TrEMBL record:
Record has Cell division as a keyword: yes
Organism from which the protein derives: Citricoccus parietis
Topology in the lipid bilayer: Multi-pass membrane protein
Record keyword Lipoprotein present: no
Transmembrane stretches, start-end: 21-41, 180-206, 227-256, 276-298
Stated name of the protein: Cell division protein FtsX
Subcellular location, record wording: Cell membrane
Residues annotated as domain FtsX extracellular: 56-161
Annotated keywords: Cell cycle, Cell division, Cell membrane, Membrane, Transmembrane, Transmembrane helix
Known function: Part of the ABC transporter FtsEX involved in cellular division.
Domain of life: Bacteria
Pfam families associated with the record: FtsX (PF02687), FtsX_ECD (PF18075)
Length: 304
């Protein structure tokens, strides 16, 4: 009986303040969608780090006629210098760090360049002698790049030792920045949602002050009087959280998992199943913020 009464009072309050409740739902939906987007971005960053770091290579570029670095002052790499680099790659000294390596000639480098820039005018202007020979080295542990750099960078005929991880770190830094921006926007929107919930509860309490006065006179408990107002805020916020959860899952499942995976098959992407981890977080944040906002508002504006 009491439960039915509380529910009746709750939905009665929602009907009276329908426009405000809809506003709470929409603002909560938008703010938690940003939270979900930030979570998806962070999951994708972790996924890509695990995917790419296992495939990261170190490129040992050899000197050419056009090299301008001081290490190439003596001219292009000689056969003996090239062989010395290969011998060190195959030696016990490098074995703890080098998983495998491949030699890439200038002609092979040109083929790869032309394939990468086939839609650019640059593809027809670059010749093989302008591109360096290189050894492409897969590391046992990508974190050991500095050791490999020290081993090979000072060898005659070596122009530079380049770590692909540097480029990946720049990409991941941009993605982390986007994640921080999404969280920042989400925080602002959540503050708006909390203020809207507080305003909705305040208006509801004001419009029903006569009913609450009667309930107080007949001996209704403090919890019985305040619970309908509390549930109004929680239900509105929970509705917004459900919409945000569905949106987050749909983005992960259809946009990232289906479309992006189809467009870039060589890259590991998250899918809808990964987004399910975020749903309890979104629902929990909504309920917690709504409950706290409602309780603080009721203490101030509903004296029982």
């Amino acid at each position: 009986m009491r439960f039915a009464f509380v529910l009746g009072e709750t939905f009665s309050g929602i009907r009276r303040n329908l426009s405000m409740v809809v506003s709470v739902v929409l603002v909560t939906f938008i703010s938690l969608t940003f939270v979900g987007a930030a979570g998806l971005l962070q999951q994708q960053i972790n996924q890509m780090k695990g995917y790419w770091y296992d495939r990261v290579e170190v490129a040992i570029f050899l000197c050419t006629d056009t090299s301008t670095t001081t290490s190439c002052a003596s001219g292009p790499v000689t056969d003996s210098q090239r062989q010395a680099v290969q011998d060190l790659l195959e030696s016990p000294t490098a074995a703890p760090y080098v998983k495998s390596f491949d030699y890439e000639s200038q002609d092979q480098a040109l083929e790869i360049f032309q394939e990468q820039f086939k839609n650019s005018a640059m593809a027809g202007t670059v010749t093989a002698d302008q591109l360096p020979e290189s050894f492409r080295v897969a590391l046992v542990d990508p974190e050991q790049y500095e050791v490999v750099n020290e081993l090979f960078s000072s060898m005659p005929g070596v122009e530079i030792v380049s770590d692909q991880r540097e480029l990946l770190e720049q990409i991941f830094s941009l993605m982390n920045m986007a994640s921080v921006i999404a969280v920042s926007v989400a925080v602002v929107m959540l503050v708006c949602a909390v203020l809207l919930i507080a305003t909705t509860i305040r208006l509801s309490a004001f419009s029903r002050r006569r009913e609450t006065g009667i309930m107080r006179l007949v001996g209704a408990s403090k919890t019985m009087i305040q619970l309908p107002f509390l549930l109004e805020g929680v239900i509105a916020a929970l509705a917004g959280a459900v919409l945000a959860s569905v949106t987050t899952w749909a983005v992960a499942e259809f946009f990232i998992g289906d479309w992006l995976t189809g467009q870039y098959p060589g890259t590991g992407f998250i899918a809808g199943g990964d987004a399910l981890i975020l749903i309890p977080l979104l629902l929990g944040v909504a309920v917690l913020l709504a409950a706290l906002s409602s309780i603080l508002t009721l203490r101030r504006y509903l004296k029982v």
